[in-house]
Write a structure and sequence with these properties.
Elements (H helix, E strand, L loop, with lengths): L13 E4 L8 E6 L2 H4 L5 E7 L4 E7 L1 E3 L2 E7 L5 E8 L4 E2 L6 E4 L3
Antiparallel strand pairs: 1-2, 2-6, 3-4, 3-7, 5-6, 7-8, 7-9
Length: 105
């Protein structure tokens, strides 16, 4: 599985900081991708950790001038996996590849 070590998804409107993250560090996800540009009134980050998406949760994102944002703690896993959905159940999952970010150890 490909894991971005920096903000390699910038063209898709997805940024995390810091990148790469460290375990137990707060990570901010900013999304200004297709769903945001299509006028979605609400967005959710669907997040999980590691190859098996452990601890999956949907986090409601907050609209900001930069797009939609959410801050989550990185767990002690090797990756953070994210995809996005709006309130009408439209998804941005990077064409089925999801958005995958490395977590340092």
């Amino acid at each position: 599985m490909f894991r971005a070590k920096s903000n390699e998804y910038l063209a898709n409107g997805v940024i995390i900081t810091p990148a790469p993250a460290e375990p137990h560090q707060n990570v901010t996800i900013v999304y200004n991708g297709l769903l945001a540009k299509s006028g979605a009134p609400e967005l959710y980050a669907h997040v999980g950790f590691g190859d098996s998406w452990q601890g999956v949760q949907d986090i409601k994102m907050i609209r900001t001038p930069s797009g939609f944002e959410a801050t989550i703690p990185a767990v002690n896993a090797d990756s953070l996996n994210v995809c996005f959905r709006d309130s009408a159940n439209n998804w941005d999952n990077n064409s089925g590849m999801n958005y995958n970010f490395s977590i340092l150890h």
